[in-house]
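Appendix B. One record, verbatim.
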Amino acid sequence: MSTSNNALTLKQILLGISDSLNEAQNHLRNVKPYDEFGRPNTLYTLPYLDFNLQVEAEFEKETSSESPATESKTARTSMAQTYQKGYARTLAFKPVASTNTSTDTKESNKVTSTISGRFIAVVPNEGLPQMIINATPKATNTIHVFDIDVEVFNAAGEKISAALVEFNYNQQKTELLNPNATLNHNTTFLNTSEIRTDSNGKAQTQVQVDGVDFANGHILIIEVNVGNVLTKISIQK
């Protein structure tokens, strides 16, 4: 069994366990809280899953068997300074056969290992209330320039201060919403595309939309995200 095939098999086993674990948890999560008689059902969850895997790997290394004269010379040098073809300096291997001429041979070693681990259930958002982003575009007195007001808070109503808010113009989504249209995509942010919220969880930036795209009534998509929490807003004439 080659090491590459062994690694691939190990990957498939771990992914198979993970997929089966997700399916089992989804099934338990979808159990009805009450039976047909109105009695509460017992609900279960899978906090973790321990596993032990025994794998066998076969390694092959090419070595060089040298003549006795060469071996005698090698013996006089320190172990840290000598190494044979295909091996690291810190390892010493006995050749398969000793001959008077230099020949290439292969050593095959099978190693059986036990791999232990644990799949642990992770609470969404690390157990914290879900973060919410409220973004609103507002027209200014300057043509084609909009203020984007952002408020960041969580599901418990707490304002999130000092959160890094990122703004991006999504060219791909804009094209999908405007099929068969020729777009310039010159929408840019005037002051900054990254800003932190204040003590009230609020932030603001300005975006200048492409004049031609906006005048033609196309829908322009702006993404606002804080970490992996994302929201989208659209600007249209």
